[in-house]
């Protein structure tokens, strides 16, 4: 997942971001509501962890603005307020769930898994492209029954290709989707990951350049013959 944390307290935001990155998520941190709005417009986030009490623009207003602008990211509201009325206000503003501070990281992870399952109900449980198969539930990849061992970054890149099989993905789009804004990664990093991914697919028996280069633009899955 690409996750945006909108939280002004670094004592919460930094350890939370570190824990999520250890789970192989891509994480950005915004420290006020206006910055959160700007971040949300700059990347395609799967989940936004949104504090209720924020400087410059409060979480409820930001949540309403995101929903009014048709942002489809899951929104999990984080707040120290634990009253029914506050929860109702947050959910009515468009939040998908509500977690009260202080919270346990294991509980947050469970809430995230539940939200992810809910959002995936309309998505195919098994992604296929010819003999190439990816199972999002077990995070396994096979080609003609041969198991392919991928790094977490290679896996999420391949999953993105398989969920968008006809789309040409630019290097900048891949970079924006799967690398933090504050990480110094460039297009050379993308080329390296694509090369490694191609080599692993080929070693499992996949045709050469299953991920093909569209010169001057980016990459896409090669059409099945």
Automatic annotation (TrEMBL):
Signal peptide extent: none
Residue ranges of every copy of the Response regulatory domain listed in the record: 2-116
GO cellular component: cytosol; protein-DNA complex
Keyword field: DNA-binding, Phosphoprotein, Transcription, Transcription regulation, Two-component regulatory system
Cross-referenced PROSITE patterns: OMPR_PHOB, RESPONSE_REGULATORY
Pfam families: Response_reg, Trans_reg_C
DNA-binding segment(s): 124-223
Modification sites for 4-aspartylphosphate: 51
Record GO terms (molecular function): phosphorelay response regulator activity; transcription cis-regulatory region binding
One GO BP annotation of this record: regulation of DNA-templated transcription
Domain OmpR/PhoB-type residues, every copy: 124-223
Name of this chain's protein: DNA-binding response regulator
């Amino acid at each position: 997942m690409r996750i945006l944390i909108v939280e002004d307290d670094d004592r919460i935001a930094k350890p939370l971001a570190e824990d999520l990155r250890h789970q192989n998520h891509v994480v950005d941190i915004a420290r006020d509501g206006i910055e959160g709005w700007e971040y949300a417009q700059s990347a395609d986030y799967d989940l936004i962890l949104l504090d209720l009490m924020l400087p410059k623009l409060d979480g409820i207003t930001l949540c309403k603005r995101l929903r009014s602008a048709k942002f489809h990211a899951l929104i999990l509201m984080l707040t120290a307020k634990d009253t029914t009325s506050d929860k109702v206000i947050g959910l009515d503003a468009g939040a998908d769930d509500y977690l009260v501070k202080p919270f346990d990281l294991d509980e947050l992870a469970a809430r995230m898994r539940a939200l992810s399952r809910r959002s995936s109900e309309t998505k195919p449980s098994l992604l296929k492209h010819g003999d190439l198969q990816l199972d999002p539930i077990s995070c396994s990849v096979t080609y003609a029954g041969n198991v392919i061992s991928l790094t977490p970054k290679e896996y999420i890149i391949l999953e993105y290709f398989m969920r968008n099989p006809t789309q040409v993905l630019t290097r900048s789009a891949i970079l924006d989707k799967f690398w933090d804004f504050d990480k110094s990664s460039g297009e050379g990093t993308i080329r390296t990951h694509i090369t490694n991914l191609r080599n692993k697919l080929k070693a499992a028996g996949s045709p050469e350049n299953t991920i093909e280069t569209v010169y001057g633009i980016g990459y896409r899955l090669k059409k099945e013959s």
